[in-house]
């Protein structure tokens, strides 16, 4: 019998195969344009901001929750940084303080989410839906709905920097993802996450402090969104009031394609990273092939549904029930 | 009187799962008006057989006939249409609908396009009256107690006027008086010529209600016996495991040592003025009726629930236990009552389920060493001889008994000074039970103490050195081993109850 270890790896291996097949197909279809080093590094760079948001989302979805406020936090942190550091603004702080304050405010939003969800017993969907609107309102208000420019030079240049030919934004994602993979596997923080996500009551009776852990998951997720906000800011070279709008949906899609279960307890950072790459590959490849962007949107939507559909199909085939019957009859 | 012709005939059925052969050439037949007990250890194949009969599983080979017709393509829908109805352990009712709606689900009486609520409530009420249950049909299921909703699930099965009813551990959550109502219902079914299959680990019940009993062992039928021929439980157990009841409860003598835990004047939400102690090398039993407050006391000592007042003294030191973590740090462990809801991490593998509270032992500078973690988990899985395919198998694939053993492995690995077992053998087969008792011996001989909570008196009297009887949230008495008797303990358990009738009913 396939142990769970193999099963999990199997899910990730399947995603990797899908990604490779897509890449090979696109390389051939675009006569090598897709597979050029420049395009592949570009693809990873394009995935990186969503990729970082999705790391945080992975944590939340493993707890069995959801966080719709991440996109607004992306916008908030980029805007807070710009306001704090802008040479045309009133604070004119250094980048260091700008980053610190931006991430701290992001973390605060995460904490409020967690308090509403854990202590206020507000369903995560509702609490973070409200927070999404609330935070976006704050961003619009403090910026009067306008871009905030005049950010420090080193901040603007970060987005175009490269190391070993790979963009700094891509490195940021790769390093954060690798770090979280290790944290989830090798620390109690990570193990507690899976325990709480599988069975909160059993976790409590195992001496795990549920409140503290739930707080930290939402705070960590918010900090990841905050980092993504700064990454977006370096690309825009400004604080953008609408920055990060809709990012929560891409992040959720990446996590779900990556094999996580919305009912909690299941999911990996590696799967999510592959999910983020798959979404971006469709966008990037479609672009190169000259596919209508509206058609691409239809395609991405279908992929999200199909990913979960096939996951369920494989599960039901093992149990001999559910979808299999649909196919039998058809 | 049972008819001559069998209504259900299952012949030479085989069913394999990736790791095990669950059923090997099993034949099983029941006549109308017959109450058939189905017994066997966990993993003997009872559930698999039932799932094949109800169509939840597909058989690999063999045949099944129902009511004289060959059933080729079985499925839950097909079996229901044939008149087979199973009442599973997991209550099958819709919690947000009323009792009446649950009965009429799928075929509500209509006036034109509208639901005829009046008729629905009236007929449901009449139906429950007939059975003798006093439950308000206007209430939502979720407002009922677990036992009441279980009774509703059973009644729902009867509502369909089935030809075969399968009860799978129906009395696990029922009180004695509700069990009596259930038995009366079964008698009624029998008179109407309905066949009944009754699965229970409580063999006394099987003797009380069944005409015949089929024993399954390791996926094969040992035999089918009329209950009168077997005479009593002691003759049935050897057929299931090849072990007598005396051997099962056999306990090594251990030296009683220093006091490990002392609780003084504990008061909380559902208990008052509780004092008891546990010494090294002894099993302290806690007996009481359902709702007497035993679990609440254990949860308070373990720091799950709030404590109003009282002292907890661990190893001679007064301890302030505010959360489970504090209790764990002080060396107190708690094996919860409801394995599925409070014990296992369903989506995770066996390794995770053992290690979840034991990662501390294999960490250096905050980093888990998986080599060591796997080794310690494997060690305890081997010690408890848990039957598994691989350590990385999801715990959901194990039988209930083996899941319980994994949780015990978790706690043995943690090695607390005092371990509280809350109903550890509910829904567990005789073989695993006796292994759990054997483990008690190992724990005691290493100088630890055990608190055992159980509603099953023969078991509790067998393993305990002393028993505290809890009645209505208070300690009614502390009873020493030489004074153990079922009558005495039961009487004490009812001491603080007002109604004398209840005592009569239960004894």
Secondary structure blueprint with pairings:
The complex is a heterodimer of chains A (330) and B (507).
Chain A: H1 4-29, H2 37-62, H3 70-85, H4 95-119, H5 124-143, H6 153-158, E1 162-163, E2 166-167, H7 168-186, H8 188-198, H9 200-205, H10 210-236, H11 247-257, H12 269-289, H13 293-319, H14 323-329
Antiparallel strand pairs in A: 1-2
Helix pairs in contact in A: 1-12, 2-7, 2-10, 2-11, 2-12, 3-4, 3-5, 3-10, 4-5, 4-10, 7-8, 8-10, 11-12, 11-13, 12-13
Chain B: E1 6-16, E2 21-31, E3 35-39, H1 46-54, E4 61-66, E5 69-70, H2 76-82, E6 84-87, H3 99-104, E7 110-111, E8 114-115, H4 117-131, H5 146-159, E9 164-168, H6 176-191, E10 195-199, H7 203-209, E11 212-217, E12 220-226, H8 227-230, H9 233-241, H10 245-248, E13 259-268, E14 271-279, E15 283-287, H11 294-301, E16 307-314, E17 317-319, H12 324-330, E18 332-335, H13 339-343, H14 350-355, E19 363-364, E20 367-368, H15 370-383, H16 400-414, E21 418-422, H17 430-445, E22 449-453, H18 457-463, E23 466-471, E24 474-480, H19 486-493, H20 500-506
Parallel strand pairs in B: 3-10, 3-11, 6-9, 9-10, 15-22, 15-23, 18-21, 21-22
Antiparallel strand pairs in B: 1-2, 1-4, 4-5, 7-8, 11-12, 13-14, 13-16, 16-17, 19-20, 23-24
- State the helicity of chain B in percent bands: 25-40%
Strand content of chain A: under 5%
Greatest chain-chain contact = A-B, 30 and 41 residues
> Tally the helices of chain B: what do you get?
20
Query: pLDDT below 50 for ≥5 consecutive residues: which ranges of chain B?
Result: 498-507
